[in-house]
Fold:
Amino acid sequence: MITIRGVDKFYGSVQVLRGCSLEVARGEVVVVCGPSGSGKSTLLQCVNGLLPFQRGEIVVNGTSVRDPRTDLPRLRAHVGMVFQHFELFPHLTIRENVVLGQVQVLRRGRAEAVENALRLLDRVGLRAHADKHPAQLSGGQQQRVAIARALAMDPVCMLFDEPTSALDPELIGEVLEVMVELAREGMTMMCVTHEMGFARRVAHRVVFMDEGRILEDAPTEAFFAAPSSERARQFLSRLLQH
Amino acid sequence: MYALDWSSVPTAWPLLLRGARITLEITVVAVGAGMVWGTALAVMRLSPMRPVAWLAALYVNAFRAVPLVMVLLWFRLLVPAFLERLFALPRAADVRLASSLTAFALFEAAYYAEIIRAGIHGVSPGQRKAALALGLTSMQAMRLVILPQAFRNMLPLLLTQAIILFQDTSLVYVASLADFFGMADIVGRRDGRQVELLLFAGGCYFAVCFAASALVRRQRGARVVT
Amino acid sequence: MGYVWRWSVFLEPVPSGGGTYLGWLLAGLRATALVSLLAWAGALVLGVIFGVLRTVPSRPLRLLGAAYVEAFRNVPLLVQLFVWFYVVPELLPAQMGRWVKGLPPETQQLVASSVCLAIFTGARVCEQVRAGIQSLSGGQGKAALALGLTVPQAYRHVLLPVALRIILPPLTSELLNLVKNSAVASTIGLLELAAQGRQLVDYTAQPYESFIAVTALYVAVNLALLGVGRWLEGRARLPGGFQAGR
Structure:
């Protein structure tokens, strides 16, 4: 589903991604972790072409991201993304947030889009808030709406960029529950996150990044039991202390 | 197609320079007086004495609600006669420059007052408390602690307002006073070369203002780093 | 003091007959309103277009926006007005130039004033729009693109609706400035409010009444537009504020 091969990315003369290679098969859930500044969010945003990269190749569902002939909006329509700061559109109601992409990008009829939106909001437990505006909801609620917004596009895979990092601790659980359910339904997911509990529950593989490089790429249990690199060991021990 | 003939520009130079002197004179006086009076107004608006604060607010809002053209006309057409009547003065010969200077200073003060008021509000309230705790009077706190910081914070806006003022001096045209632009227009009409002179004047203003704005931007950038 | 106040002068007929001095005053107000409205419409269109241009990913387009702003912000309004009124008709291709110069003077004055004020104010509106868009979190643009919206769609459905709401207060200020700047049109003969003020001073012997009336009208228009601005801001307010997720 997602193939990343030898990706290098530079900001000017500063290299932020070094030779990253990674595969995510259909139905797989891959967690990407690592210290801040390791390039995990950057790599994720390269997958749907939000950030450009200078060398290497990324292929999503058969489409090459860097090919100039690729219609990026069309590609992105089928790749769902959830952001750390939710990024709901403040001037639209919750319902309209979930409807916008369907109508403007997928060109669905409004009635169908609204019905779909309400169904998805129901699924994440927020249908009752459909007429409110984002600022009236808690962070956890906003993030669940953001997931519904992405799902409304019927994506072939979902990218999560630290979805719970901006949430108060007591709100993290409700978002993770939605993500776990999604994983159990067989959605292909690539998640940048610090939530190791989530990783252990549903991730098939864990990828560890540091300083722009992928240092480890192992099945979940193997990663937690015996990480092969020293950096990964340090990172895990510090993380699990909390 | 109109054939541009720039030959009248060099010959107009002495008159243009005379006009430029007027432009600069008005700019400098209006910026200076405007800032002083504007600062006073800003401080007055914060006065605990309600009538004082109210009057200052009224002044600022009144001058900001009317066009500069009207203020220039007021001071050119009405105020000299009014003052003559009031003080039984002899008929003054040429009040064009004096009336324009006064009008600009009083008008710009209202705009400077708002900039400085914003600057004062931007200084953290703890500064005033610390100054008073040291034993400084309210006036000393304002003069020695708050205002210097307010000025430093608002320097880019103060400079930008000066550039705007520099451009606005061209409006003395309505008071029949010839500044740089006015001279360009007069020479243009006299020589039948209005097109060239107006374009030349426009070019000069552009060059000066563009350079000045660039300098202000550079200064703002330097300040942000420190 | 020696000055005789006579407010009834406004009801007196003008020398040319066919109206009162009050009629002149109101005609001036109408002209000011017309020029301001035309110019504001133009300024909004230009301001939004160039404001968007200054924020798009394409560097040449951004430079085009910057050039527009610099060109019309660094030359005094009066100079720009004279260029539009006296210079542009001369520089147009011969046939167009003749047609323009053949138009009735009032039309020439109105067109030159409206175009000049629209372009001048448009540069300022452009900067407001740019500031508004840039005040949005970068994530908003990314979220819009991640949904599959094209760049124009992202501006239309996500960035501009919020940016324009945010900049309503400074936009109201720009409109107020525009109305005040319209007085400059009196220099090319447009009989707007300030010009009518001068006429009244010349024709009646009551300069104080004339100018007080004109000044009062400017203040009244100012206050009215401020009121409209406040009302619009109230309508545009979003429940809970603008920054969702912060």
